[in-house]
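Before any further analysis, backbone shapes were mapped to integers, which produced the following:

***
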Amino acid sequence: MFSKVSSSTSNINFKNILVEDENFNVLNYPYFYNGGGVAIGDINNDGLPDVFFTGNMVKNRLYLNKGDFNFEDITEKSTVADQQGWCTGATMADVNADGWLDIYVCRSADSNPLKRKNLLFINNHDNTFTEKAEAYGIADNGYSTHAVFFDYDRDNDLDLVVINHSLKEFMQGQQQKPGIRNQTDPNFGTHLYRNDSGHYTNVTDEAGITSNVLSFGLGVAVSDFNNDTWPDLYISNDFNEADYCFINQKNGTFKEMSQEMFAQTSLFSMGNFAADINNDGLQDIVTLDMLPEGNFLQKMHNGSENFDKFQILFNNGFFKQYSRNMLQLNRGDGTFAEIGQYAGISNTDWSWTPLAADFDNDGNKDLFVSNGYVKDYTDMDYIKYNVDIIIEKDPTKQEQMVKDRVNKLPTIQVPNYIYKNDGDLKFSNQTKAWGMDDQIVSAGAAYADLDNDGDLDMVISNSNDIASIYRNNLNTLHPEKKYLNIKLKGNGQNLFAIGSKVTLVTDKGIQVEELMPSRGFQSSIDNMIHFGIAPGDSIKQLNILWSNGNSSTINAPGINKTITVDIKQSSSDPAQTTSTETKGLFAFSDSLPFKHQENLYNDFSQQGLLPQWFSRQGPAMAKGDINGDKLDDIFIGGAKDQPGIIFLQNKKGTFAKQSIDALNADARYEDVTAAIFDADGDGDNDLFVGSGGYELQPTDSLLQNRLYINNGKGVFVKSNKALPEDLINDNAVSVADFNNDGYIDIFNGGFCTPGKYPESSGSQLLFNDGKGNFSLDKNGWLKNLNNQSLITSSASADINHDGKQDLIIAGHWMGIEVWLNKSSHFEKDPGFNQLANQLGLYNTISASDMDGDGDIDIVAGNQGLNNQYVSSEAEPVEMFYGDFDNNGTQEPVIAYYIDHKLWPIYSRDDLMQQLPSFNKRFIYYSEYAKADMKDILGENLKTANHYTASQMSSIVLENTGKGFVKHSLPIEAQWYPMYSISIMDVNGDGKKDIITGGNQAFARIKFGEYSAGRGDVLINTGGFKFKTLSPMQTGIKVSGDVRNALSTGRQIIFGINNQKPLVFQLAN
């Protein structure tokens, strides 16, 4: 689709050449190779976009577009390179409101602040410019990366924000110093300048724009993130200081709200881009980082995960950040869901510029990513070699060692990425297919319709190579694809209408674009707004929300043309905006007066190769009428050294806390599962509590399950002899009369043996004698159950309509198994188990008749698809468990496929720490990076216990009467590990809907926490199709690791690990 235009054709021969010397190099200035920027705009008002490049060690260049991809270098005449310095970001804006684009250039690197003063080139209307930054008050002398002109106070002139970055001394090792985040330096922070009648005033402090010495600003996006028509700010920070999101308070001030809005951000955040990715009218955010796609570079960039260090940072107020690209999807309720891995855009190597635009004119915004680095100082072999340099005592030898090593640093030179937006928030890599697979080191980039043919072309600044110009040939290749280009004509001091929002309404939906040229990384795009129109779609109208609050509507604007819309045609009527106060199905009712309180324990200190923590499985929850008033009461289990608690429900639907002496006496136990049922047949409900805990010893008496007998008045007494002794690490319980003797029996499903994942702790079936005494099954009811099953959930139901209670189980590295009750034993019927071999990492299941046909269907919560585990039947995630280094300890080694080869998920340091005898085999990181599982474990793979998981989706199984048909739950339910499923008719249409919860905050640092679940409501539309309601429609907003949820009447109660339970009430 794209073809590269040669420099001989375009006459663009700009090359950002970077040359190190002893005094100035990547070691003393880590941003030495960050590269230059690109700005595109029509500087001479001839209707053709012109191109400006910033140079770091070479002069800036300005090229005049002469048409048909022919450009004239007017640098010398224009004088834009007369004052050079280390130039970084560039943006074009009409600063003096004369109708002609000026050029603002950021500068950095130089220790002399006079040579860091940013430059403003005022357009003289004759292809020449005069530098006037000092006169306008915006000669910012920080270490500047980029700048944006925008009207933050909506007074119809252009204000300015400039982002700056800190220096090497604050990159590492400073984070644990007390009060470090309160230290400031004006050279490093973000600066906000207010336009006061043509002169700019620094209002950073009074506007609430905060930063500190750890601020490494590399990207800035201005966008209306909360849909209140006022522009907000998102700033990407490199290293340990999290990204900032400043929300406009509409009174001249901003409030930093990143931690309220996002669950996590990129760690090494580079460029960013704000755009409506899924055409829902809400602005989403893409941030770029450094995670490679291929195994070799992944391993060369990762040392020990150092989980404890990250926890210290989190506890010291640093936000949760993980090294990968992120797509923050705007939920519309003031929060965002991070779904970059689900979307398929998380791994693009050392990345700089994201550009989201409709490159193939199908109505969806695609994504371009520039990447590469000239000298990779994060290479692990280099970092290891640094230790030798530090040890060397001879200064002369040390200096030579540094030179030698710098000269040998590898170059990250891989193709840039361009992704097609396939819809449903999925992107496919089209880099090669679309003709952008040159291996090159790129930095700033911008798009524009350079030849005015209706498709978007690309300009990319490269390091040590000629800039790339790509012609988009879509108009020729696919004439059936249509477009509409729009130029806005403003008034007052904002003649280009910067900050206006344009909504295109078509038969298929809407598209939204904000006119904000500064984008990506150190770059700015043309002022033209571009919409692609998919074949078969047609435009209904164009709605414009002008930056001053006016609005315009244009019906049937036409296609395949450029139109100009003047603010003179607008109305001053206030525009309709999406309110975040929309009334939802549910309303928050209460948080119950009990906080689940986990003890401090690091599972990785016990087994360093775990995929995640397994010690935080609570709180257990169960419901049932405890005091005989025919209302559901609630039991919520405690963590280790915390008693469980009973909540009695009254007729108003509220709950009263009741302390139970027997539960208080058993506070040492960790409550993982629970069930309320009549165990002793006396007509009142008793309480079973299943114990567990990964941190316990395998033979710990605290693994013993407990039964508390109700005296009929809601007072419980522990029955010490009711249950046989057990050492099961509980994760599942189901109660039913399995043997049809009229008494309720117990299935008790176990997860791993404490401290020995993935060894199973076993499961048991307990039969009731009718008096509340339970004995182990001695007749082999489950003799064919795999004794290595890691069961996480179970359910009982009559699956095959024979009047007997069957058993359904699921777990990690398991399928969903249906065990039919044959009166004397359970049997896996082939018809109902044809999907049992589709193994997953299941966390929860629920059995219910979802389609009202009289038989029982199954809803299953799995790991989800928003992670690095890209698996399939042919290439599953695999785990090998064995004593690989003959030290008497078995280790779980997990692996996944990249480029059709099986690789360990671990860095060299993490694997060698657990298998130290392997150190001698892999002295260099590069040796380990080239080694797949066969190279590392060899013959051990044949003797190790082997586990696989190929099915990661959360699903619903439709019972056909003879078997099951699998249906995937909606995409939103795939964005997090699902741990809770509640079934209730939330909209009163007679169909059963699904409410889900989940998340996992304690995964490996490499993968980061899984936190995109906020309590989803999936509406049953019939035919096993479900529609996810938006958070504004549901009224539910739950953060944290949901481990259980219960519905009682018109209420849903979420049990959240280490938090208070939250109660939401269905609205009337």
About this structure: The radius of gyration is 31 Å.
